Automatic annotation (TrEMBL):
Lineage: Bacteria, Pseudomonadati, Pseudomonadota, Alphaproteobacteria, Hyphomicrobiales
MF terms in GO: catalytic activity; FAD binding
FAD-binding PCMH-type domain residues: 1-186
Database matches in Pfam families: FAD_binding_4
InterPro entries named among the record's database cross-references: FAD-bd_PCMH, FAD-bd_PCMH-like_sf, FAD-bd_PCMH_sub2, FAD-linked_Oxase-like_C, Oxid_FAD_bind_N
Organism: Methylorubrum salsuginis
The protein, known as: Glycolate oxidase FAD binding subunit
Keyword annotations: FAD, Flavoprotein
Length: 400
């Protein structure tokens, strides 16, 4: 079909997708690969001649509750998979983010996109990233060839692990047509322990102490004052069988007693709080602000935010025990690129510009610039899978 001057392809089968890619390769036609297109505002402005969408590739292809594994075609709505799992008391362990509130987008998140962007939320500190649960993929490479890697079990890997390579590739290496994940049981009880009034450094110290204990947190976040409330709140989530949760809560309270009295949040209030952390909705309402996703050493998170704040006004909160920072700055002409990337470079880590006006995204590298050796390696992988450079040029690292 046609949308203005942009052709949109939505193949209904993997075979049809291979034919479309092969034809595009023959014409050197660059393709924008999308799922539900909920992340349309991420990356550099479009640099493609046509869109290749996975939305025609739908349906659950595998579900074995006893083996805790689920597979579906890439365009299957994520909500459909999650609803199926919920019926059997199971879930995707890595708590994928919904980008729509932050990016102001519409559409439906797709199952394949979860793998394509390695979409991982607060539970990553306990259950790992989406990449760690991904055990099988099918995709079409830049030559128009259908490739299968992995299968139904975690150890089903020989040679080059294309499953892990495709996770987080943002559609730059191929069009995912089917993905398979391991799943976990839903926990009997979920409780959030909340400390109030801590500054950033004290909060990260408390989170580090809790994460270093044997009491198994599945969420560790800090919301400074003004982020979702007047008081600063430090959040620790505990899940499991009720007796285990009760014991661990008591031990954590003893461990953290010098940090102040803790309160407990359960039920929908707890779930809503972690959805807001997962989806970064605390920063969504300031539409003119640029939003950065910063990964660094947890103990140096407050150092990064303090350095940025000295250079220009900013708001932020922490996830992953302080190792993930969501930070909003005035967009300006550069979205605060210099202070953000200087602070990250000094502390170690990387910063991704998740949201900014199109003019800024056209001028500023969206991903953290890679050192030359990694840039050569990245370019070589891209050339091996997509030799004509067809796929998602707006999502590539600058220089690749």
């Amino acid at each position: 079909m046609e949308t203005g001057i942009m052709t949109t392809h939505a193949p209904a089968s993997e075979q049809e997708a291979t034919a479309i890619v092969a034809q595009a390769a023959g014409r050197s036609e660059r393709l924008r690969l999308v799922g539900g297109n909920t992340k349309a505002a991420f990356g550099r402005p479009p640099q493609d001649e046509a869109t290749l969408a996975s939305t025609g590739l739908t349906g659950i292809t595998l579900y074995e509750p006893a083996e805790m594994v689920v597979g579906a075609r890439a365009g299957t709505p994520l909500a459909e998979v999650e609803a199926l799992l919920a019926e059997r008391g199971q879930m995707l362990p890595f708590e994928p983010m919904d980008h729509r509130p932050l990016l102001g987008s519409s559409g439906a998140p797709t199952f394949g996109a979860v793998a394509a962007v390695n979409n991982s939320g607060p539970r990553r500190i306990n259950a790992g990233a989406a990449r760690d649960s991904l055990i099988g993929v099918r995709f079409v490479n830049g030559r128009g060839q259908a490739i299968k890697s992995g299968g139904r079990v975690m150890k089903n890997v020989t040679g080059l692990d294309l499953v892990k390579l495709m996770a987080g590739s943002w559609g730059t290496l191929g069009l995912l047509t089917e993905v398979t994940f391991k799943v976990l049981p839903v926990q009997e009880r979920v409780v959030t322990l909340v400390l109030t009034g801590l500054d950033d450094a004290a909060a990260v110290e408390a989170l580090s102490a809790a994460l270093g204990s044997p009491f198994e947190l599945t969420g560790a976040a800090h919301l400074p004052a003004g982020i979702g409330g007047a008081e600063a709140r430090t959040l620790m989530r505990i899940e499991g069988f009720s007796k285990s949760v009760e014991y661990r809560l008591g031990e954590l309270r003893r461990l953290l007693r010098r940090r102040g009295e803790a309160t407990l949040v359960e039920g929908e209030d707890s779930a809503a709080l972690w959805r807001a952390v997962r989806d970064a909705t605390f920063l969504a309402e300031h539409r003119a602000a640029a939003v950065w996703r910063i990964s660094t050493v947890p103990s140096r998170g407050p150092e990064v935010t303090a350095a940025v704040a000295r250079a220009r006004p900013a708001r932020w909160f922490y996830d992953w025990g302080g190792g993930l920072i969501w930070l909003a700055t005035e967009a300006g002409d550069d979205a605060g690129t210099v202070p953000v990337r200087e602070a990250v470079r000094a502390a170690g880590g990387h910063a991704t510009l998740v949201r900014a006006p199109e003019t800024v995204r056209a001028a500023v590298p969206v991903f953290e610039p890679l050192p030359e050796p990694l840039m050569r390696l990245t370019a070589g992988i891209k050339a091996a899978h997509d030799p004509a450079g067809l796929f998602n040029p707006s999502r590539m690292y600058a220089g690749v």
